[in-house]
Amino acid sequence: MIRIDDLAFSYPGSGFSLRVPDFAVSRGEKVAIIGASGTGKTTLLKLIAGIVTSQHGAIEVDDRAIHRMSDSERRNFRISRIGFVFQELELLDYLNVFDNIVHTYRINHILTLDAEVRRRARALAEDVGLGGKLGRMPRDLSQGERQRAAVCRALLTEPGLLLADEATGNLDPANKLRIVDLLVRAADRRGATLIAVTHDHELLPHFDRVVDFAQFHA
Amino acid sequence: MRHDFYLAWRYLRHHRTRSLILIASLGLLITLPLALHRILDAGEALMTARAKSTPLLVGARGSALDLTLSALYFNAAHPPMIRMADAEQVAATGWAEALPIYSRFRVRGQPLVGVTLDYFDFRQLKPVAGAPLAMLGDCVLGFEAAAKLGLKPGDPLLTTPENLFDLAGIYPLKLHVAGILGRSHTPDDEAVFLDLQTAWVIEGLGHGHTAVTEGGGMTPRIAAVPATNIQVDQTKLLTYTEITPENVGSFHFHGDPATYPITAVIAVPPDQRATTLLRGRYLAPLNSVQIVDPAATTQSLLQNIFRVGALFDGVLLLVGIATLLIVALVFALSLRLRQREIDTIVLLGCSRLTVLRLAAAELVLIAIASSGLCLLLLALVRHQSTELVRHFVIP
What is the average pLDDT value for chain B, to the nearest integer? Predict the structure, then answer.
């Protein structure tokens, strides 16, 4: 599913560099990545998602070579195949919960916001306990509810690969477990691969495999 | 594209105060020069039409502009008076019909204009309610004046005393509203018309009172007039403040009517030859009376107004450029403030082109709303153009 070979990346003008000699994740596998701050966990997820590109090495997702794609090809691949829950979740303050969930469909011309997508968005919201709050604005939601809405947004495109970057970082223990459970269930239901960066060691039993980022050169 | 406008609409609606300020600023910026030109055009049309429908004006020597504004627009500037004899002289030449005007007074803010009945024929003014002037003390109201004063035929209208502290001065006269004139879209709509003689009664040149008693008992307040041996009992000499069918017979004028004051004379020559001859008659520099062509006077006034208008346009252009620069700056700063939001939608797969399209959609919506506001304001200006012209264009 995901294969990284001899990857090297650095941000121009900064001292940061990341080297991943070899890393692979099987289809449907749920992997937790742990490690100290600033070691490049988020960067690795961005490289896998094609948001940034490496200077050296190869990244393949579903047998597609991300590193050889053009900008627009990478973007289209990400939109259609990858769901991303960000470290700092960003629901747009001027859109209600429903509009935030379907937002990806409004800003990408390769996706079509039809009745089926709307039905799916409502079903997802219902599933995470936001069914009665679709018309609410983000400011009217709790932190946990906002995170659940962000997860719905990531799941709506039915991605084969789910990337979660500190998705539980700002939540209380109960909500942390709820979000991880939500991500794991969603991945199981769709047979999707899940890679989650986390600092919470009590969440690790939910994953099939834990990768310590210390093994990579940073 | 539909989604772009939906998202832009949601954003502008969420930040409605900021959006409304932006829309109002741009709307006013577009409206101001257009409204100014609309008012100036309407003013030009109104003033030119009025001036062109008035062939010549005879009045006291001095400012031709004051004379024109007073006689045509009944404005508050009063040029020096001429005498009724001057009107008679115009008529006596046989080169023009003479229509005297006396527009010195105002009543509750509306001009009180003394005319002869010929004036109504000349201006094609006909009552839409009530009757024309028939008796001393009658008045007919222009359409707007009737609305502003809230009067209808049969109502009384008390003139304003000229000086509250001058006991020998001009007393208020209770006028009788005989009729309301149809709307003419000219300054006549704002005027209260009365007969010249009624105007002179208000002036104090004519009056009516109870009969003077001859002989009779003396009281301490009786004054003796030895030459005629008429004793006037001032306690019984009541000056009428209202002209009624019962007392109209007692009204009379003192002195020679030819010396009575008027503001101007509208001279209506039948042809160009008569016009030239009549104008030649008033060319002498020592003549205390002048003759002016209202169209030419109005044209020179309009040229000045349009010169000011052009200056205003220039100022507005500079203000407009400054405002657009500020709007551009505000927009650029707002994009910087929205960098997090932009980063988020880029992470969601939005291309830079789509980000620009979303920003453009917001600008288009603001432009549409500003244009809508502009059209609304222009419609208001159009609807009120006559009023605005009277307030801002006609001096």
Answer: 83
How many independent structural domains does chain A possess? 1
Whole-angstrom distance, CA of residue A100 vs CA of residue A119: 15
Q: What is the pLDDT of residues B347-392, one digit of tens each?
A: 888 888 888 898 899 989 999 999 999 999 999 988 887 777 776 6
Q: Phi-psi category of B255—alpha, beta or left, where left has phi over 0 and alpha has psi -120 to 50?
A: left
> According to the model, what pLDDT value does residue B237 have?
61
pLDDT of res. B334 = 81
Residue B98 binned pLDDT confidence (cut-offs 50, 70, 90): very high
DSSP secondary structure of A111-161: S---HHHHHHHHHHHHHTT-GGGTTS-GGGS-HHHHHHHHHHHHHTT--SE
DSSP at B209: B
Orientation of helix B294-337 relative to helix B64-73, angle to 10°: 80
| Whole-complex ipTM | 0.82
CATH of the domain at A199: 3.40.50.300
pLDDT tens for each residue of B303-321 = 887 787 788 778 878 888 8
Residues 296-355 of B with CB under 8 A from A: 340-341, 343-345, 347-351, 354
User: In B241-356, which ranges are E strands?
Assistant: 252-253, 261-262, 264-268, 289-292
Residue with tokens 């551009």: B328
Angle at B177 between CA B176 and CA B183, to 5 degrees: 160
Of residues B13, B341, B354, nearest to A92 (C-beta): B341
The tens digit of pLDDT for each residue in A97-127 reads 999 999 989 888 888 889 999 999 999 888 8
Q: Which of A78, A106, A109 sits opposite B7 (nearest CB)?
A: A106
**Distances in Å between the alpha carbon of A40 and those of A78, A198, B66, B130?**
20, 13, 86, 94
CA-closest candidate to residue B105, choices B208, B207, B193, B185: B193
Q: How far apart are CA B197 and CA B138, in angstroms?
A: 10
Q: How far apart are the first and last CA of chain B?
A: 52
Q: Are strands B138-141 and B174-181 parallel, antiparallel or unpaired?
A: parallel
Contact A107 B11 (CB under 8 A): no
Q: Is the dihedral of CA A41, A42, A43, A49 positive or negative?
A: positive
Rg (CA), chain A: 17
A8: containing domain: 2-215
**More confident call, A106 vs B205:** A106
Of A78, A94, A107, the CB nearest to B14: A94
pLDDT > 70? residue A218: no
pLDDT at B214: 47
Closest CA to A83 of A144, A24, A124: A124
Two tokens, residue B59 = 């009045």
- Count H helices, E strands: chain B? 12, 16
Chain B residues whose beta carbon lies within 8 Å of the beta carbon of residue A90: 340-341, 343-344, 347
**3-state SS class at A58:** strand
